[in-house]
Write a structure and sequence with these properties.
The chain is an alpha+beta fold and 127 residues long. The chain has helices at residues 2-10, 13-19, 67-80, and strands at 23-25, 33-40, 43-46, 49-64, 86-88, 91-103, 114-124. Strands 1, 2, 3, 4, 5, 6 and 7 form a 7-stranded mixed β-sheet that branches.
Amino acid sequence: MEEALRAHLAGNGGVRALVADRIEWAVRGAAPSIALHLISAPPDTTLAGQSGLVQARVQIDCWADTFLKAKQIGAAVIAALPERRLIIGEVRFLACTILDIDRGRFGDTPNQLHRTRLDVRVATNGL
């Protein structure tokens, strides 16, 4: 799921226009950039055992040198999240749900990075 999600975001024209190819898992690159963090990925379990589905919680940090740009990157990521039943490689995205949005400080303070954090539930057919 991780590489499929990264590839999907990196291939989106709106996201790419804002951060180029600076999208990585667990690493904050030079601003502007996107850092993806896998918070949890518990398998879905039924009475018959594991269903093969996973509902991962992913934190997406959108970094920029201005508040406005961090907010724009966050909006582009939301628009680019995989749609229901999208298949990327062997991964079938069933749903991407925004759980929370947190925006950093307002203003354009020199030498300070600004962040928009998105918490997203990503339901797939497996990691």
